[in-house]
Amino acid sequence: MNVSKHDYDVIIIGGGPSGLMAAWAASREGARVCLVEKGAKLGRKLIISGGGRCNVTNAKEQDELIKQMPGNGRFMYSALSQFGNREIIRFFEDLGVALKEEDRGRMFPVTDKAVTVAQALINQIKKQGVNIRLQTPVKTVNYSEGHTTGVTLQSGEVITSSCVVIAVGGCSVPQTGSTGDGYAWAKEAGHTITELYPTEVPLIANDAYIRDKSLQGLSLREVEMTLYAPNGKKVTTQEGDMIFTHFGISGPAVLRMGHYVSITQRKHGGAPLALTIDLMPEKSAEEIAAESWKLLEEQPKKAVKNVLRGYLPERLIPLLLSLASIAEDTTLSHMRKQDWALFAKQIKALPLTITGTLSLEEAFITGGGVSVKEIDPRTMQSKLMEGLFFAGEVMDVHAHTGGYNITIAFSSGYAAGTNSARKSLELLS
Questions:
Q1: How many other C-beta atoms are found inside a 10 Å radius of the C-beta of residue 144?
Q2: Which of 181, 140, 193, 190 has its CA nearest to residue 386?
Q3: Which domain holds residue 310?
Q4: Whose CA is closest to 305, among 288, 317, 287, 315?
Q5: Which of 168, 202, 263, 294 has the fewest C-beta atoms lying within 10 Å of its C-beta?
Q6: Which parts of the sequence belong to the RsdA/BaiN/AoA(So)-like Rossmann fold-like domain (predicted)?
Q7: In terms of pLDDT, which residue wins out, 258 or 51?
Q8: What confidence tens digit (pLDDT) does each residue in 205-249 have?
Q9: What is the distance between the terminal CA atoms of the chain, rounded to a whole angstrom?
């Protein structure tokens, strides 16, 4: 194969976080790079990430980062050692994007605008001479004699290269262009695509208080949720903020729980799962019973629902009292301490029946993808097809929300870009 006659050294498919970083890394190595994006804009997923603020990475130590990557996180050890969160922070600060650390180690631009991050990266790859082709959908990745040779566009145009990086994302958030295109190209090269499922996804519940929408829109801060398998075995506990919705629950802690719901339901034939919400994780049931009973004693003639205002979110009070079989208008003189102990237990374990998650398209992240057993974790090169590289969510690797998925994207993008460039230059020599 005469690589010197190729149009480019590296073609990168996909202008999301991993593709942009791959373009920067490959062009920095001196490779001739073409970045192909089927949409009209680069960085669409970057611009909507973090609620439009772009949570660029997480400041926690590497081992903690890996712990927050339940989908094959260990695969990322080598890539994170080359270009981890410290390098990501330094990279953006060198581009003039000042960052700040918020709760749970989340790093954001000081401007609170994702476009600041996206534009800095796009400007830099332009400066480094990357040829950017927008509104250019790829039809196939081309292979010959065990090696990539380039791509064929939907228009029929063929662009040749010695290396190709597939960085097109999964199937989630399809409005950003992630529609699962990369799986067919990987399969054509002999790769296994593991089962796809929604992760980092809101949960559906069918309890009466969800169906009647009485709590819709109610946000709760710093709760603790525990998920149970159908056999009663505890699956996981997640902490953080949540919100009740018209279909169930959402919010950061719920999105993290989404991974475990998907996995557990797949194991148990889609059976409903029990979930409990601890509304006051910092206190025991006994402490809650004692301090709330004291409130009743201070206002003995007042209806219990009124006494509890200020102690609990007002919209939750009728539900919690009902679950403990206590009438809202009851006063202290009609109350038994054992009834109140049951009320305190509801605060520690508000029950929900989870029937499923929202769809893969409605999830924030796709679980499953190109099997990481078939990808070199150091270089992101295919073990089956020379010159083929992968980056980001197209691979079977994912994390919880909080800057971890974008860290995977940037880190794997750096490895794929750097090593595809080196591979192409090695083939030239």
A1: 9
A2: 190
A3: 202-357
A4: 317
A5: 294
A6: 9-418
A7: 258
A8: 999 999 999 999 999 999 999 999 999 999 999 999 999 999 999
A9: 13
Tell me the DSSP string of 131-153: EEE-S--EEEEEEETTEEEEEEE
Confidence of residue 3 (pLDDT cuts 50, 70, 90): low
Last residue of a domain, one of 309, 336, 357: 357
CATH of the domain at 69: 3.50.50.60
Cβ neighbours of residue 278 closer than 8 Å, sequence gap 6 or more: 223, 224, 225, 226, 347, 348, 349, 350
Contact 407, 413 (CB under 8 A): no
User: Looking at the domain assignment, is residue 2 inside a domain?
Assistant: no
Which residue, 310, 337, 357, sits at the end of a domain? 357
Statement to judge: residues 85 and 181 lie in one domain: yes
Contact between 88 and 76 under an 8 Å Cβ cutoff? The reply is: no
- Please state, as a whole number, how many other Cβ atoms lie within 10 Å of the Cβ of residue 415: 30
As a whole number, the mean pLDDT across the chain is: 95
**Strand stretches in 134-264, DSSP E:** 138-144, 147-153, 158-166, 197-199, 203-205, 219-228, 234-244, 248-250
Cα Rg, the chain, nearest whole Å = 25
> Can you tell me the distance from the alpha carbon of 97 to that of 107, in angstroms, rounded to the nearest whole number?
12
CA atoms of 424 and 429, how far apart (whole Å): 9
DSSP 3-state of 310:
coil
Query: Does one domain contain both 175 and 56?
Result: yes
The structure tokens 């919209």 sit at: 315
- CA gap 397, 50 in Å, rounded: 19
- 332 pLDDT band, cuts 50/70/90, is confident
The 3-state secondary structure of 28-73, one letter per residue = HCCCCEEEECCCCCCCHHHHHHHHHCCCCEECCCHHHHHHCCCECH
